[in-house]
Amino acid sequence: MSPILNQAGGLRYHFRGIRHRSRLWQPFRKAVGRWLAGFCPSGPLLLVAPSGGYCLDPGWLSQVQEGGRAIHAVDWDPLAPWFFGLSHPRASVHWHRADLIAGGGKELERLLASLPDARVLFCNFLGQAELASPREYPAFAARLSSQLQGRIWASFHDRYSGQIRPSSLEPFESTAGRASPEELMQHFYRHSRSGELNEHTLPLLPEGAHHCYWQWELRPGVFHLIEGVRGLGPDPLVAGTVPVTHS
Ligand SMILES: C[S@@+](CC[C@H](N)C(=O)[O-])C[C@H]1O[C@@H](n2cnc3c(N)ncnc32)[C@H](O)[C@@H]1O
User: Fold this and answer.
1) 92 closest CA partner among 113, 61, 116, 122
2) Which domains does the chain have, with CATH numbers?
3) Measured between alpha carbons, how far is 227 from 31 in angstroms, rounded to an integer?
4) CA of residue 13 to ligand 1 center, whole Å
5) What's residue 233's pLDDT?
6) Are the C-beta atoms of 156 and 35 separated by less than 8 Å?
7) pLDDT tens, 122-142?
């Protein structure tokens, strides 16, 4: 599939990002920024598949930058660095271009080996990876968890999507592992069942992570339920500032 013309990024996504980032996507971007407040790296940061960085809060990126940490980013889209520069003109980013899924994720493995101290943030990628590369995805998904062992990492990604407007704008936080479909349906979709939504395929991730959920209106009338996962890594993370909401 072409890096410029595909369902999980590329030109269509850039145009959508430019159009919606400062209005329709603003509440989601702010929620991601609050969640990331607990993920300020002490060393370099690697952004995985950030596209034009439309969902990344500029305040959080400046905080990383002002702390003197190097920011790396990897995407297979050759237009991503240019669009990222438009959205975050003050960010200085070392770009890498690679197909992260092909060959069982060997390019990701190579990049991680070259950045042994980097904290890794998957930027709305894991829930789209199967759609972008369906044939290569199973081998990539099977190896990801072991590639992240011993790393400090986080990911925000699609868990569900569809045309049902969530009934709650409040985030839902789960400290007891991954939220079940029932918990999410009760919190976000009071009158619906999970079968009425698309469930995104996700790789198995290391155990013990902290999970948070938000809604994101991708375009008018189309909603994604995003799962934010912070891995525990070798040293404990600072607690985030996301409001705790229990159903
Ligand atoms: C939904 S977009 C990411 C959204 C972005 N994080 C944001 O903040 O707006 C998914 C990204 O994954 C990238 N991508 C998809 N398949 C890829 C692959 N096989 N290798 C590298 N990048 C890939 C796309 O180019 C796109 O930038």
Assistant:
1) 61
2) 5-230 (3.40.50)
3) 12
4) 9
5) 59
6) yes
7) 999 999 999 989 999 999 999
| Ligand 1 centroid from CA 94, angstroms | 17
CB 54 within 8 A of CB 120: no
For residues 33 and 7, the answer to whether their CB atoms sit within 8 Å is no
Strand 153-162 to strand 93-97: parallel, antiparallel, or no bridges (unpaired)? Answer: unpaired
Strands 153-162 and 119-123: parallel
Q: Give the tens place of pLDDT for each residue, 82-110.
A: 999 999 999 999 999 999 999 999 999 99
Query: How is residue 106 written in tokens?
Result: 């060997």
Distance 247 CA to ligand 1 centre (A): 32
List the structure tokens of 43: 């060393």
The 10 Å CB-count burial string (b at 16+, else e) for 222-231 is: ebbbbbbbbb
Note the pLDDT tens digit of each residue in 16-35. 999 999 999 999 999 999 99
Torsions phi, psi of 123, nearest 5? -105, 85
Q: What is the pTM of this model?
A: 0.91
N- to C-terminal Cα distance for the chain?
41
